[in-house]
Fold this sequence. Notes:
By secondary structure, the protein is an alpha+beta fold. It folds into two domains: 2-159, Jelly Rolls; 166-267, Arc Repressor Mutant, subunit A (Orthogonal Bundle), CATH 1.10.10.60. The chain contains ten helices and nine strands. Strand 1 (2-11) and strand 2 form a beta hairpin. Helix 1 runs antiparallel to helix 2 (132-151) and helix 5 packs across helix 6.
Amino acid sequence: MSYSTEASLTLSGGTAEIRNYHWREPLDEAFCDDIPVFSLSLSPVPQGSQARFPQFRRHSTFRPIGRLLFRPAGAPMQCVNAGGTQRLLMYSPERRLQGIDNAEPSLALRSPAVAAMMHKLAAELALPGFAREAMAEALMTMIAVEFIRGAGPDGASRRAQGGLAPWQLKRIEDAVNGFEAAAPTVSGLAEMVGVSPRHLLRAFRASRGMSVAAFIARARMQRACALIDEGAISLQQVANRCGFETAGGFSTAFAREVGCTPQAYRTLDRISRPTWPRMTDPTN
């Protein structure tokens, strides 16, 4: 395993760093830090990415890694993947706010607010704006506070109220991430987990903080980005495999979600590409 540091910033609120990882061979390694770590994948998660936290009973078995995760201080995380590349934002809060040290790990942190602020922090590192340090300092504090609020008992009850069961969410995510050619419909997903389409729309938003349509759109673009990165097929073939009938429709949807056309995405180097998912309202 090797990585390069694209950008970094250390302030009183913590340290943020954008790293570009490259695994020439399948990964099977344990990571552990003496401070908490938030990690946001700014590129598609490598194939087969799974991890576990042996010292936590509820998290001792391997589970898929999402785009946003949290590692507590001093908690070893055993990680495996099939190899490849990944661009990550790593944020380690230095201030030990009450509650963060007692938080459990999360391999797929479901917090649209934390995700949005992490994306904004990544943008400040990659393309610094006016009063960069002040903005980054504020974002670091807000990320930690928002996480603590959501990780506690009150936050857990808010997430659970009116939401879907874990097995229902997993079945929906597996179907959306594993479709071939035609994306699943709301009716099909609702039937799969035994609820009405209307209930699914309401309960999915309560559980994930975004609509089913937005979740499907992001999954399609994640697959499209991965296929473009592989470079083995044409953009028309990418469009077909992601469920688009025409290249024009695919290009329009890709630009709306990612921030540039598929052709531009293919020609730009990784550092110059727009941060994705974009900073949009996750509930739309």
